[in-house]
Amino acid sequence: MSDALVLVTTQGAVRTLTLNRPAALNSFTAAMHRELRAALDAAATDQAVRCIVLTGAGRGFCAGQDLNDEGMGNDGTPADVEGVVERHYKPLALRIRSMPVPVIAMVNGVAAGAGANIALGCDLVVAAKSASFIQAFSKIGLVPDGGGTWLLPRLVGRARAIGLAMTGDKLPAEEAAAMGLIWRCVDDAALAETTMALAQKLATLPSAALAATRRVIDDAIGMDYAAALGNEAKVQGEMSRAHDFAEGVAAFLQKRAPVFRDR
Ligand code: T3D
User: Fold this and answer.
1) How far is the CA of 206 from the centre of ligand 1 (A)?
2) Is 58 in the pocket of ligand 1 (CB under 6 A)?
3) Atom of ligand 1 nearest to the CA of 140
């Protein structure tokens, strides 16, 4: 068994990062944050990687902050929760959103607290039927973090965002999919196969255009209609000057499979 807190495996152009503290439901320690960020940085610079899958070892995806770890005040020092969020969760959420390739969360079990919101901040979330999402913060006197305050109302609207965050109730994956919080919920036995098929498909698509798609959609959330249309035109111009657009059009006209390379 590996001591690594994040297991890194590669299948074709798909890099899988597995949070590996199963005895504590893969809750985040400072050390696991450091390993995850290093693994994401490495994937970002590796031109052979065209899609990332983030998942958890054992029966959980991630139970959020490890409540025994440094900064939590359990060693008699004052809790430095603000510092933990600034040093670890904020850069992690921003790193995922700035990856040059799509990031899929493969939610294999419970995703609680910041563990839920880090999953929701990925581009696509595929969850097993037995998985669940818990905004666990209110139960310990905190507010949602890991991007939850931004993500939840945008994904499911204010009423559901407030309901999920205030109650801290466990939301089964099937309900999460039904309310549009996640992309798909599948049978437990189909989770790995479904997610890998999706990842392999995304890996064949033009990575730079997929990353730009994420960006323009996120940008548009804070824009009026006219500004979003202008932003689309600007980014479309950038995309159209890149190799992958010429390749996509040529492949279509020549009735062959395209070979995309931009990242
Ligand atoms: O510094 C900061 O705090 C800032 C950042 C905050 C971000 C946050 O994420 S705050 C929210 C932190 N997370 C939680 O409050 C969730 C705590 N966990 C739970 O409520 C439950 O474990 C679950 C609902 C997620 C799952 O319940 P269940 O019954 O399936 O499992 P369990 O028995 O509670 O947990 C299994 C083991 O994992 C257990 O250890 P043991 O008794 O077998 O040795 C449990 O203590 C451990 N574990 C689970 N979550 C955490 C944890 N250990 C440390 N920290 C955890 N968050």
Assistant:
1) 38
2) no
3) 15
In short, whether 136's Cβ falls inside 6 Å of ligand 1 is yes
Cβ neighbors of 221 (< 8 A, separation 6 or more) are 154
Q: In ligand 1, which atom is closest to the CA atom of 66?
A: 55
Q: How far is the CA of 65 from the centre of ligand 1 (A)?
A: 8
Mutate to test the pocket of ligand 1, among 33, 67, 68, 167 (most ligand atoms within 8 A of CB): 67
Cβ(214)–Cβ(205) below 8 Å: no
The two tokens of residue 155 are 């994904």
- CA contacts within 13 A on the Cβ side of 140: 15
pTM over 0.90: yes
Distance (Å, rounded) from C-alpha 133 to C-alpha 155? 14
- 63 within 8 A of 100, measured Cβ to Cβ: no
pLDDT beyond 90 at 232: yes
Query: CA nearest 176: which of 123, 131, 145?
Result: 131
The residue whose CA is least distant from atom 5 of ligand 1 is 65
Whether ligand 1 lies within 6 angstroms of the CB of 112 is answered as yes
Render pLDDT for 179-217 as a digit per residue (tens, 0 to 9).
999 999 999 999 999 999 999 999 999 999 999 999 999
pLDDT in tens, 76-134: 777 899 999 999 999 999 999 999 999 999 999 999 999 999 999 999 999 999 999 99
- Any atom of ligand 1 within 6 Å of the Cβ of 113: yes
Residue where the block lists tokens 């065209």: 50
